[in-house]
Amino acid sequence: MLYLFGMVLATGFGVAVTAMAGGLGQARAIAAALEATARQPEAGGRLFTLMLLGLAFIESLTIYAFVISLLLLFKLPAPPEVLRAIAGK
Amino acid sequence: MGRGLLARIAVTWLAVLGASGAALAGEGEGAREPVTWLNWLETVKVHGRPVISNTASLAFAWSLVVVVLLLAISLLGTRRLSLRPRGLQTLLEMVVGALRSFAVSVMGPRGAEFVPFIGSLFIYIAVMNLFGLVPGCMSPTANLSTTAGLAFLVFCVVQYYGWRERGLAYLKHFVEGVPLKIWYLPLLLLVFAIHVAGEIFRPFTLALRLFGNMMGEETVVLSLVGLSVPLLLKYWIPIPVQLPNLALAVVTSLVQAMIFATLTAVYLGGVLQDHETEEAPA
Fold first, then answer.
1. What does the alpha-carbon distance between residue B207 and residue B223 come to, in Å, rounded to a whole number?
2. B 222-281 residues with CB below 8 A of A?
3. Cβ of B114: how many Cβ atoms within 10 Å?
4. Which residue among A52, A63, A74 places its CB closest to the CB of B212?
5. 0.95 exceeded by the pTM?
6. Domain spans, chain B
């Protein structure tokens, strides 16, 4: 019962918390790229490429958490079994 | 004019919805085994064992399809090479030129030697990723086996070139920044261990990044189709809920291929001689 509880919480909160932190990190990267582009618009193309590269790195950390979440999601039991577990315990 | 246009829009909309639905066929939870045009290979038996028994072998079959397609395009485009290109050769030259400038910009002048490797990697991964968006096809990169194989290949190539370029001094490259005196031995060992761990970590991140992105995009579109197909079947309301995510999937497919190729170029640039910048990120 506690196991189910823990698994469901982990599945839900895993990606949520990681995405929050990832969003903050990506915000800093984009802000820096935008500021640099405003200073020197002719370097815009190269800066955009670098920004995309940096964003993909930060995103990949969230993707790792997402993969774990997906693995857990497919291990969650079906609702009848969960109800039986809640009623039985 | 008005009615004809409306009819055409409606038909296109229904076709796109139906096609996308069939592509990720198997709406609802628990649809693990993808339903593709090659699934009939599960019934083909060689020496008593089926040719395709799990998703990994299905992914392998699809990667063979991708390879055959790319081979066909290359052979068709290079049949009558001329200094004044026409037709398909123009397109291929544009692609190769772009990849060459990309490789040289990341790796420096030595990048020209590695254009075939990095270029092939980029085109192969991009086409594999985009295959998943075609109705009835699956992207081989949505399976960890394919991406792990690619990452292992990149790891082997980087290590091979590292050893070939520097010989035994390749080990000295691991302990950069620490003077080679005997009383620095604990620090040397620590830095060496950290660097080796970083090197081992790289293929894992490469594989997981590509796999996670592709499987994630596939799962998201599948879930959205699971929303819209019952709506269509029961109430005849064709709302392709997955369309914005499909568009995003095209972008992320290309971006992930570029990321993989860029990281390979950065790792290769790091082990080549006379490359004086700091270490590549993990």
1. 24
2. 255-256, 258-259, 262, 281
3. 22
4. A63
5. no
6. 3-279
